[in-house]
Design a protein that fits this description.
Blueprint: H1 2-12, H2 16-26, H3 35-41, H4 59-63, E1 80-82, E2 87-94, E3 99-103, E4 106-109, H5 110-113, E5 127-133, E6 140-142, E7 147-155, H6 164-169, H7 173-176, E8 179-186, E9 189-196, E10 204-206, E11 213-214, E12 219-223, E13 227-233, E14 238-240, E15 249-250, E16 255-259
Antiparallel strand pairs: 1-16, 2-5, 2-15, 3-4, 5-13, 6-12, 7-8, 7-11, 8-9, 9-13, 10-12, 14-16
Length: 262
């Protein structure tokens, strides 16, 4: 009964105007006093932040903070695919005939996730990794591979929660929420970085200026409040590390597996 009620309330609160109100507050000077409480509530490692807490003028500025240089180590191996974010892996495995199977009990097709892009065929038998960012995490998204950005697409959508409850109880959240998709061509094929918006997220933004050259570890985009990144690797181009599985906590720059070069 309570699950059904929460689901109904979530459906009602998934409107973009509610996220816009939340976003406006987070970007206002009035939100500044919330920063210490927010950091304490979510046990955020403030010592890693680029600036002291008192130098952030809004909650949004703190949430989208950069880290001090050297806080994350980028795996240097040329063929390494790195995690673009600090996150919890909530799904990983082979794509089966165009379907991502059993992410929190639900299946997703590549066609719906990629908004029926002509590039869908590249990923029908590839590999996927779902990375969930909680409010505790660092929220800048970095480039997972060296290569060239060949396409960017913005897909409008809902703002359902992408936490455990949202993924289990709401219908196919990852392919119904707003998404920002970046396609990167590398030496062995292509990788899609699917950035999925969430409840109370005012936007997903690219880091400017936009560049076509993708350098592993460089900033790519950022979330304004928590969300999810889905990595898709083209057919026959990726070998995951042995312990890659749901429940694994990873940090930005950490090796997720090996790209098959050519």
């Amino acid at each position: 009964m309570m699950g059904w009620l929460f689901q109904a309330m979530t459906e009602l609160s998934s409107r973009k105007w509610i996220s816009r109100i939340t976003g406006r507050f987070a970007q206002s000077k009035a939100s500044r006093s919330w920063i210490p409480r927010f950091a304490k509530m979510y046990n955020i490692q403030v010592e890693e932040a680029e600036k002291p807490l008192k130098e952030y003028s809004t909650l949004n500025e703190f949430f989208t903070r950069r880290l001090k240089p050297g806080s994350r180590i980028i795996h240097e191996e040329t063929t390494a695919l790195i995690s673009p974010v600090d996150a919890l892996i909530t799904g990983a495995g082979s794509i089966q005939a165009g379907t991502i199977v059993n992410v929190k009990g639900q299946d997703y097709t590549i066609e719906e996730l990629l908004n029926r892009s002509p590039r869908t065929d590249h990923y029908r038998d590839g590999y996927y990794i779902v990375l969930y960012l909680s409010p505790t995490d660092y929220h800048r998204i970095h480039t997972p591979v060296n290569g060239r950005i060949v396409e960017r697409e913005h897909v409008p959508g809902k703002v359902y929660p992408v936490n455990d409850f949202g993924l289990r109880r709401m219908r196919r959240v990852l392919s119904r929420n707003e998404r920002l998709i970046t396609y990167i061509k590398h030496a062995g094929g292509e990788t899609a970085v699917v950035k999925v918006g969430a409840m109370n997220v005012s936007s997903i933004r690219y880091v400017e200026p936009l560049r076509d050259q993708a350098v592993k570890g460089d900033e790519l985009a950022y979330f304004e409040f928590g969300s999810t990144v889905v990595l898709l690797m083209e057919d026959d181009t990726f070998i995951p590390r042995e312990d890659l599985a749901p429940g694994l906590k990873v940090r930005m720059g950490e090796r997720l597996g090996k790209l098959i070069d050519g």
